[in-house]
Amino acid sequence: MKNKFQINIDQKVLDDLRLRLAATIWPDEINNRKWETGTNKEYLQALCAYWQNDFNWDKQQRFLNTFDHFTTTIDDNEIHFIHQPGEGTMNQPILLIHGWPDSFVRFLKLIPRLTKADEDGYSFDVIVPSIPGFGFSGIPKKEGMNPKKIADLFAELMTKELGYEKFSAHGGDWGSSIIEQLALYHEQAVTAIHLTDVPWQHFFTVSEDELSQAEKKYLEEGKKWQQTEGGYASLQGTRPQSLAYGFTDSPAGLAGWLIEKFESWSDSNGDIENSFTKDELLTNATIYWATHTIGPSMRLYYEAMKALMQAKYNPLVKLNPFDKTDEKVNVPTAIAIFPKDIIPAPREYAERFYNIQRWTKMNKGGHFAAMERPEDLADDIRTFVKETIMVM
């Protein structure tokens, strides 16, 4: 049963946050003007000063609460979600799944564009859950909260809790991985999927001997990226607990870890605020801080990597979430490629794993397309899902 939910962060948490920001001990920095070694110190100091002195959480909280928030419990896991009804006469349910280091905040600009009716009266009922261990969803109490498990929880949310027999889904980052598992294991309920990237686990599943030159180039670029920028994933996939102590205790440390990804993965042309406002960045960071979910959010990398490695090196043991990795998704699939995302995949690579029905190359935008280019993304989702549903 779903219960109405209002975001209400205790003032004591906010007061403590400001005290900790004021007491930050800053490290030295050498030659990092272009963020070569990580988050730029001058920018982070300015951002944290704004967080301490000028950021208006009450204003952001009032805005967040203009959406319809709920919680429910599924298999002993508390799930927070937005359930925003469409304004049209023909409403299709769509599940939007975020990734890391963002949260449900990723979709705040996208929601009203999808709930708005088009000239045919067509719109979407939009459901945006927080992944377990993120934001206002509960922190998992047991091991095993991997993409397959999350997909099962969200399938139950959509079908049993909300009563939708069929629905479409969109996501990026971890959202792509979770949606892939939805399409593989809950094909009867998923009518169409729309992604902004090809999930990372496919790097482990193809033989380079059978790849085209474009695919080989893509994988080589992926390996280079992993060596030069992917250290965060290796750390979170192996030792997330060690990182969690510092980021749960220091808001400046937390912001430094989160903000660098928004700068690196966006189409910001060297200025992060070309893509995101300080308020957008800090609303996301404040949710992580107030809910103590940076540790659980990073643990998702560990859970997924553990399951993948066990399945890869012990094929006799079929472990979720990757025991259907070799199977192709049959659900009609669209992928929107944004040019500044993390190494966009070529179409022939994606077609190995998905039933590609639409492939869109965008002119601008990066990894957080729903925040950077919400109109372009909404139009692409609407066009694809509308055509797919009408054909079906």
N→C terminal distance: 31 Å
Main beta-sheet strand count, sense and barrel state: 9 strands, mixed
CATH class: Alpha Beta
Any guess at the CATH architecture?
Answer: 3-Layer(aba) Sandwich
CATH H-level homologous superfamily name? Alpha/Beta hydrolase fold, catalytic domain
Q: What is the β-strand count?
A: 9
- Shape category: globular
Q: Using only CA atoms, what is the Rg?
A: 20 Å
The helix tally amounts to 15
What name is given to the CATH topology? Rossmann fold
Order of helices and strands: EHHHEEEHEHEHEHHHHHHEHEHH
Account of the protein in words:
- This protein has 392 residues and is an alpha/beta fold.
- It is built from 15 helices and nine strands.
- The chain has one domain: 3-Layer(aba) Sandwich (Rossmann fold), CATH 3.40.50.
- A nine-stranded mixed β-sheet has the order 1-2-3-5-4-6-7-8-9, sandwiched between helices.
- Helix 8 packs across helix 12.
